[in-house]
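Could you help me review a protein record that somebody else here produced? My question to you is simply how this chain folds and whether the tokens agree. Thanks in advance; the entry in question is below:
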Amino acid sequence: MAKRFEDTDMFSENWFQELPPEGKLLWEYLIKRCDNAGVWSINWSLAKYQIGIDFDAEGLINTINTLKERVRFIGCDKLMIVDFIAYQYGKLSENCKPHQQVLSLLKKHGIDENKGYPKGIDTLKDKDKDKDKDKDKSRSKKFIPPNLEEVRAYHKEKRFRFITAETFFDTCEANGWVRGKNQIPIKDWQATMRTWESMRKEDRDKKAVGDPTQMLLNQVDDMIRTE
């Protein structure tokens, strides 16, 4: 059973206070269910079952990332808690035995330990120094909707299979680039697109439950397409 450090002041922080109850539960869930590198293999159905409530995964992740990127998608099937390593270990060292396992996990996930985070692997002191600067920069950013060609280019780059660039663009354009039942403005369209892809894949896998043949075909299809 893994044991982690937790921020005892978290419930006093504005960003956490502003999360809806399901957002707070999801954040706690991710902290506790991620591996020692801060990476969680996406399984929204299991998360909803274990937390005990239904929720809008895309909307909550975008809300958690308001003002600062706290969760980052790694491909379509994993996500990473951005500051997890910095908070739990500080600066990683190959000469430190506990750190060796973390470095091994990063390699397994295909993450460069020096580029997988907004500022590299900084110490907590460095992170705190830049905290206010990050907030100011985030506030000054204004969302500019992409055009269809940009969406198509990103779709091709990520090799999405379960959504089309046209459907994503047309839906977001028609909705005014907002998300969820509460019509929250989209701040990161690429993250939203990755969430769409992940959720469509999950829907496909859920439909195959109870059908061993279809489950096997899905697994083979995934292996072929990722080669």
